[in-house]
């Protein structure tokens, strides 16, 4: 992507930020019923040399703290001083959810299903609109940090639209997460809207909501530094310990029965077709059912909640095979089947976690 020979002033939130400046500004979104102002802190780090503008953002869902901690540590450790271009860091977008340990804003809507937003719409829509007005026009690339939800943990992974856009593929490859998952664009999501605007955003997932995942945080920081180096914005950094495993498809294995779920697998483990991955038992000691996987692949998501209902997502399997199976026949957005099934294929951005979060 070509850039101007000399960096131009950047206008954000009514401020003019010159090349070489570091600025903290706050986007005022609204007020709580108590009158307390809700604003979003935005850190801007500018080089004196021209280059791309990269967004690092977390807290789209307020209960997802790992991304917040990744950006916080990078700011605290003074790791975001670009050699060229600009870095915009937003540790928490959904301040409402953060204050209430919640995925949503108080009106119950999901900010990541509300883009491009509306200045007269719901609270989530207003947050999305302010982002689109102030931030989106400035950026070229971005990393959006997330975690699993509702006691479901994700192994560190990049989610993006693979093999359809060369720049997106390069960002995912540069990040070098343990797993890279092909994920389609969800209507109303930040990724979909950014793609329509000509911006490229990848999603990093690790851990579960309201829990810090130290390994995932470290891998997230390292991957972010590699992306910034790939864009010639930071010096060379350490390569990933091992090549990423690319999963072009994924399948959620769901509970056929309600009861107490006991997992026999771990995140990152490879399971064979027909392998027992856990059991569901009634709480009275009368019945127990072994659960066998109908597909082979890597465990990229795992339910840590022992009490499950029929149809609950238990294990997320990332698949490297290319042969279609009966599990691929399910509609990709059918997240609430009319009757319980053992498996369901999810190839959207959050791979079946919408009902879980």
Task: Report on the architecture of this protein.
With 357 residues, this protein is an alpha+beta fold. It folds into two domains: 10-245, 3-Layer(aba) Sandwich (Aminopeptidase); 248-324, RNA polymerase II/Efflux pump adaptor protein, barrel-sandwich hybrid domain (OB fold (Dihydrolipoamide Acetyltransferase, E2P)). Helices cover 18% and strands 31% of the residues. The strands form three sheets. Strands 3, 4, 5, 6, 7, 8, 9, 10, 11, 12, 14, 17, 19 and 20 form a 14-stranded mixed β-sheet that branches. The longest helix is centred in the middle third of the chain and has 17 residues, at 214-230. It is globular and about 70 Å long. It starts with 9 loop residues before the first strand and ends in a 12-residue tail after the last strand. Residues 325-352 have low confidence and may be disordered. Keywords: Hydrolase, Metal-binding, Zinc. This is Succinylglutamate desuccinylase/aspartoacylase family protein. Residues 343-357 have a biased composition (Acidic residues).
